[in-house]
Design a protein that fits this description.
The complex is a heterotrimer of chains A (177), B (567) and C (138).
Chain A (H helix, E strand, L loop, with lengths): L3 E4 L9 H11 L18 E4 L4 E4 L8 H5 L5 E4 L2 E4 L9 H5 L6 E4 L13 E4 L12 H5 L5 E4 L1 H20 L4
Antiparallel strand pairs in A: 1-8, 2-3, 4-5, 6-7
Chain B lengths: L12 E5 L3 H4 L1 H12 L3 E5 L5 H4 L3 E3 L6 H14 L5 H7 E2 L1 H8 L4 H8 L3 H13 L3 E5 L1 H4 L5 H13 L9 E4 L6 H6 L6 E2 L3 E2 L3 H11 L14 H6 L10 E5 L3 H4 L3 H10 L2 E6 L11 E4 L8 E4 L4 E5 L12 H11 L9 H11 L8 H7 L1 E3 L28 E2 L18 E6 L15 H6 L5 E4 L1 H7 L6 E5 L4 E8 L7 E5 L27 E7 L3 H18 L10
Parallel strand pairs in B: 1-2, 1-5, 2-3, 4-15, 5-6, 9-10, 10-11, 16-20, 17-19
Antiparallel strand pairs in B: 7-8, 12-13, 13-14, 16-21, 17-20, 18-19, 18-21
Chain C lengths: L2 E6 L8 E7 L2 E7 L11 H5 L18 E4 L2 E4 L2 H19 L4 E4 L7 H15 L4 E2 L5
Parallel strand pairs in C: 6-7
Antiparallel strand pairs in C: 1-2, 2-3, 4-5
The chains are: A alpha+beta (177), B alpha/beta (567), C alpha+beta (138).
C-alpha cells in the first residue's frame, strides 16, 4: 500500500512552516548559500484556508493513480510506497495536472536549471514524493509545530481499521434483538 | 502575562480577545490547540475568523473598535445572573459597588448594536466564562492598538476579578506580547516612568538608590513616550521644550510608527538623529550618524519572554565588518560625554541590574545556565528560588493594599470611523513568516520566498465583487494621510466593509495610511482602526511595473548594488 | 565538524529555545531544543529565520562601518570619529536646550536586556533625562 501524509484541520494553524520545510528538504541547504534569484522555490504542498478549514493539500499517493495512468511518457512511477514524478523524464504536457482529482500537481520551473529547446527554463510537474530518499521521512511532518500532519503507513491503516472493528464489535454486543 | 505559556493548555476555558496566536506566536497557538484537545472551552472575540476562532466553541465576531462595550456587557451578565464570585470580591478587591453600578446600563441589548454581536451570544459567553473551573484571558494587539486600550485591559482584568480567576494556576489574564523582547525592554526600564523592575522614577527612595549606585543626580520628572516625539518636534513652539536629538536604537520608526509622512517630517526636522542598528533601514535615510552593531547570533545576553521568562541568548558566530555590541557603543558615547561606563561582558551588566532590582535579584547567570528559563519575580539568589510561574498567588495583588481594583468607563468609538468618502475600515495585522519591520526576515531567503512585497489586503468576497477585483490583482488604497498599492486577497474570514493589511511591507507600507491617534494612558497608537477607500487599477501591467520599480529603488536606497543582482 | 549553540529565538515573545548549527563560522541550520515554552517545536521563523546573518541583501544590507552625514551625504568613518562626533553633538544640544531635549529608545528586538539596561542608564545618568521608551507602543 502507498503511504500518504494526512493533515488534521483541528490542529493546523496555517503557518506554512511545512511549505518551507518541503523546499529546504528537496533543494538542500545549498539554497542558503545561493543568490535569492538563482534557486527555485517550489513547495509540493499548499495551505488552503476557507472560513471553516485550514489545511495543507498534497498528493494522496493513490493506489491507482490517475496521474500515472495519464502520463504519456511513463514519468510517474511508484517508488518506496510513494507516487513519484521523475522530473528528467517529464515533458511538461500537464496531463497529470488535469487528471489529478486533488489539485495536488502543479507545473514549475525545474530545479536542475535545465533549459528547454526554446531557451526557456524547463517546466516540469511538481508533486509530493513523501521525501523519498530523504533522511527522516517527510519534512512537512517533521517541522509542523502543532503536530497536525501524520504519515499514514500501511501499519497505521491496519491498526486504525482493526481498532474501529473492535469498537464496532463491542457496540454490536449492546444491540439486543 | 500573569500566567506562564505552558499553563495555557491546562485552563478549562480560554477567552481569547483580539489575539491571533496563529500568526503572531505559532508556538503559543500550539498551546491553545492543546487546551482544546484536553477539553477546554474556547471563546474567541475577534472581528476576523482567525485560526482560533475557526476551532472555537463560540466566536463573537464583533465590529472593530467596540471592545469596551462588549467587555462591560459580559460583566453586566455575570453580575445580573448571580455568577460573580462574591467571596473573592469581598476578600481581594476594591470598587465592586461602583463597577456594578456603572455596568448596569451595559446590558447585552445595549451592546448588541455597538458590537454587532447578538445579545444572546454575549450572555452565553459570559455564562461560560464565569462558570468554568479556571478561565484564562489571552489578549493581544486587538485590544492594545486602539485609542481606548488601557480601559479595555482594565475591563478584562475586572472580569477576572469578578469571577475569582486570579491567584491560582491555569487562570488569570495574559497580554501575549508581540516582539521577542518587548517584555525585556520594559523589564529593564526602557520606559519613561520607571527603572528596571518597574521601580518608579518619582519614588524618592528608589531614585536615591540609583543615584547612589550611579554616582549622579537623577531626574524625578517622568519622561515623554516615544509616540509623543512627532508632536514635540513639529508642534512645540518653546525651543526649550522641543526634542532636538533622537537616539534611535534597534528600531525603525520610519517603518513601524503610524502616519509615516509625519514621522519622516519629524526625523528631518530634528537637529540630530542617531541610528544604531544591524541593517540599513528607512530611519537610516534620515540619520546624521549611523552606528553598526552586532545582531542576535553574534552577541550574548538575556531575553524576557512574554510570560516573564528570562532566558539566555548566546553568541554563535563572529560578526562580519567593523561592528560593536550595542552596550559597548553606548558605553563609549557615555564615556566620551564625561560619564564613564565600562563593562567587560553582559554578565557584569546583568549583575549591576540585579543588585538594583529586588524582583529580578535571584535570576543569576549561573541559575539561568542550570534552569534554562526563570520567570520573574525571582528574588533570592539561592537555588531554591526558581522564579514565579504565575502572579498574585492567593489573590494578593500589587496595589499597596494587596487588593485588585475594578474598573469601568464609557465605551468610546475609534477616533476615525468610516465616512462616505472613506467607506472601509483598515486594521493592521501580522504576517506569520515575517517579523516587525522586516529587516531580519525580509533578508532570510526562505521566508522572503514564501511572501514578499507588496503584501496583501484582506477583503470580503462581497467587497471584491463590488469593486470588480480578483485575487492577486493590485489595488490602490488611500486614507486622509497617504496612499499605496497592494494585492487583493478575497477571504470569507472578514466581514464586508472591514479590511486588513499586514504591516511588514515597505512598498505596501500600511503605516502610510494609519492614524496617529493615541490611547491617553499607554500612548499606543490606534493601528487597529482607520478609514480608507479602495480603487480598482485598470492598467495592471503599469501597476506591476510600479511595484517592481519601487522595490528596486528601496533596495538601491538601502545601499544594495542592484545592478549586480536580480530578484 | 560543526558546533551547536543553544539560544533563544529572536522572533516573538514565546521565548523558544533552539540550537544554531554552525559550520566554518557560518550558521547552516537550526534545530528545536526542548525549552520550557516550546518543548522541541519551532515555527517557520525559528526554523529558517537565521539566514539574515548571512546577509543575502534581499531587502536591505547589513551595516558594517560607522557613518556620519557630511554635506548631506552619509560617509563611512572610523569608530573614534563616530563616537566623539556623537558625544560632542549630544553634549552641545544638552548644553543649549537641557537634557529633556534629547530622546532615546530602548529596543524590543535583538539587542537583549543588558543593552536596554545600559541604554536607560545612559539616558538617565549621562544625559540626565527620563526620555527613554521603546516600540512597545507600536
Amino acid at each position: 500500500m502507498n503511504y500518504f501524509v494526512k493533515g488534521n484541520p483541528d490542529l493546523c494553524i496555517g503557518c506554512r512552516t511545512c511549505m518551507i520545510g518541503c523546499v529546504v528538504a528537496h533543494e538542500g541547504a545549498k539554497i542558503f548559500q545561493m543568490k535569492p534569484g538563482e534557486y527555485v522555490f517550489n513547495p509540493k504542498l499548499d495551505i488552503v484556508k476557507t472560513a471553516t478549514i485550514t489545511i495543507p493539500v498534497q498528493c494522496k499517493h493513490c493506489e491507482n493513480p490517475a496521474c500515472m495512468n495519464a502520463c504519456p511518457v511513463g514519468a510517474i512511477e511508484v517508488i518506496d510506497n510513494a507516487v513519484v514524478v521523475s522530473q528528467n523524464k517529464c515533458i511538461g504536457c500537464k496531463t497529470c495536472m488535469i487528471a489529478c482529482p486533488y489539485g495536488a500537481i502543479d507545473m514549475v520551473v525545474s530545479s536542475d536549471g535545465s533549459k528547454q529547446l526554446d531557451g526557456n527554463s524547463r517546466m516540469v510537474a511538481n508533486k509530493c514524493d513523501l521525501c523519498t530518499g530523504i533522511e527522516g521521512g517527510p519534512a512537512c511532518v517533521r517541522v509542523c509545530p502543532t503536530a497536525s500532519l501524520k504519515l499514514v503507513t500501511e501499519e497505521a491503516v491496519e491498526t486504525s481499521v482493526s481498532n474501529k472493528r473492535m469498537a464496532a464489535a463491542i457496540s454490536l454486543t449492546q444491540v439486543k434483538e | 502575562m500573569s500566567m506562564g505559556i505552558p499553563e495555557i493548555e491546562n485552563a478549562k476555558l480560554l477567552f481569547i480577545f483580539g489575539y491571533n496566536g496563529a500568526d503572531s506566536h505559532p508556538i503559543v497557538a500550539r498551546r491553545i490547540i492543546k487546551a482544546k484537545q484536553k477539553g477546554a472551552k474556547l471563546i474567541v472575540v475577534d472581528p476576523r475568523i482567525t485560526e482560533s476562532a475557526r476551532i472555537a466553541d463560540m466566536h463573537l465576531q464583533l465590529k472593530g473598535g467596540s471592545n469596551m462595550a462588549l467587555v462591560q456587557a459580559i460583566g453586566n451578565v455575570i453580575i445580573n445572573e448571580g455568577l460573580a464570585d462574591q467571596k473573592f470580591i469581598e476578600d481581594h478587591t476594591n470598587g465592586y459597588e461602583e463597577y456594578k453600578e456603572f455596568v448596569k446600563k451595559y446590558t447585552p441589548e445595549y451592546a448588541e448594536p455597538i458590537c454587532h454581536v447578538p445579545a444572546e451570544q454575549i450572555r452565553e459567553a459570559a455564562r461560560a466564562y464565569a462558570k468554568a473551573e479556571t478561565s484564562m484571558i489571552l489578549y493581544g494587539m486587538g485590544v492594545c492598538q486602539f485609542a481606548q486600550a488601557v480601559d479595555v485591559v482594565k475591563g478584562l482584568a475586572s472580569l477576572a476579578l469578578l469571577t475569582g480567576n486570579f491567584g491560582g494556576p491555569n487562570m488569570g489574564i495574559g497580554p501575549v506580547r508581540g516582539q521577542n523582547n518587548v517584555q525585556g525592554a520594559c523589564d529593564m526600564g526602557a520606559l519613561p516612568n520607571c527603572y528596571s523592575g518597574y521601580q518608579s522614577v518619582t519614588d524618592d527612595a528608589v531614585r536615591e538608590k540609583f543615584e547612589k549606585a550611579w554616582g549622579v543626580k537623577l531626574s524625578n520628572k517622568v519622561g515623554i513616550p516615544l509616540t509623543h516625539v512627532p508632536h514635540r518636534v513639529l508642534e512645540e513652539k518653546d525651543e526649550k521644550k522641543k526634542i532636538h536629538a533622537y537616539y534611535i536604537f534597534g528600531e525603525d520608526p520610519a517603518q513601524s510608527d503610524p502616519d509615516l509622512n509625519e514621522i519622516r517630517e519629524t526625523l528631518d526636522k530634528l537637529d540630530f538623529v542617531i541610528m544604531q542598528d544591524i541593517f540599513m533601514n528607512k530611519t537610516g535615510l534620515h540619520a546624521d550618524v549611523i552606528l553598526p552593531s552586532t545582531a542576535w547570533g553574534e552577541h550574548d545576553g538575556i531575553y524576557s519572554a512574554c510570560d516573564r521568562g528570562f532566558a539566555r541568548i548566546r553568541k554563535a558566530i563572529e560578526p562580519k565588518g567593523d561592528v560593536k555590541t550595542d552596550w559597548e557603543i553606548i558605553s563609549l558615547i557615555s564615556t566620551a560625554m564625561g560619564y564613564p561606563m565600562h563593562y567587560n561582558n553582559t554578565q557584569e551588566i546583568w549583575d549591576e541590574m540585579r543588585s538594583l532590582t529586588p524582583s529580578f535579584h535571584g535570576a543569576t547567570y549561573e541559575k539561568l545556565e542550570a534552569l534554562g528559563s526563570i520567570q520573574w519575580p525571582c528574588r533570592d539568589e539561592s537555588m531554591e528560588d526558581k522564579g514565579t510561574p504565575y502572579l498574585f498567588t492567593g489573590g494578593k495583588f500589587s496595589h499597596p493594599d494587596g487588593r485588585g481594583k475594578f474598573f469601568a468607563t464609557e465605551w468610546r468609538p475609534p477616533c476615525e470611523v468610516e465616512s462616505p468618502e472613506y467607506p472601509y475600515s483598515l486594521s493592521t495585522v501580522r504576517e506569520v513568516g515575517h517579523y516587525s519591520v522586516r529587516t531580519m526576515t525580509g533578508n532570510c531567503r526562505a521566508l522572503a520566498n514564501l511572501e514578499d512585497e507588496p503584501g496583501w489586503i484582506q477583503m470580503s468576497p462581497e467587497d471584491c465583487d463590488k469593486l470588480n477585483v480578483k485575487e492577486g490583482e493590485l489595488i490602490r488604497v488611500f486614507s486622509r494621510r497617504g496612499s499605496l498599492m497592494t494585492r487583493v486577497l478575497p477571504t470569507e474570514r472578514v466581514k464586508p466593509g472591514a479590511t486588513y493589511m499586514t504591516y511588514q511591507w515597505w512598498v505596501g507600507a500600511c503605516n502610510e495610511l494609519t492614524t496617529p491617534y493615541l490611547d491617553p494612558v499607554s500612548n499606543t497608537p490606534e493601528s487597529k482602526y482607520c478609514a480608507i477607500n479602495l480603487e480598482k487599477i485598470n492598467d495592471q501591467a503599469w501597476a506591476e511595473q510600479c511595484i517592481k520599480d519601487s522595490y528596486e529603488s528601496i533596495r538601491k536606497n538601502m545601499g544594495i548594488d542592484t545592478a549586480k543582482k536580480e530578484v | 565538524m560543526g558546533k551547536q549553540i543553544l539560544t533563544t529565538c529572536a522572533y516573538c515573545g514565546a521565548g523558544c529555545q533552539l540550537y544554531l548549527n554552525v559550520e566554518d563560522g557560518k550558521i547552516v541550520s537550526s534545530t528545536p531544543a526542548n525549552g520550557r515554552t516550546n518543548e522541541g517545536n519551532l515555527c517557520l521563523k525559528g526554523h529558517y529565520g537565521w539566514d539574515f546573518l548571512n546577509d543575502p541583501q534581499i531587502l536591505t544590507k547589513r551595516l558594517t562601518k560607522p557613518q556620519i552625514r557630511k554635506n548631506g551625504v552619509l560617509e563611512e568613518v572610523e569608530w573614534d570619529e563616530a563616537i566623539s562626533y556623537t558625544a560632542e553633538r549630544l553634549s552641545e544640544i544638552k548644553a543649549e536646550y537641557g537634557p529633556d531635549s534629547i530622546m532615546g529608545t530602548g529596543s524590543a528586538r535583538g539587542p537583549g536586556n543588558e543593552a536596554n539596561f545600559v541604554m536607560q542608564k545612559f539616558m538617565r545618568a549621562a544625559i540626565g533625562t527620563n526620555n527613554v521608551d521603546h516600540c512597545a507602543r507600536v
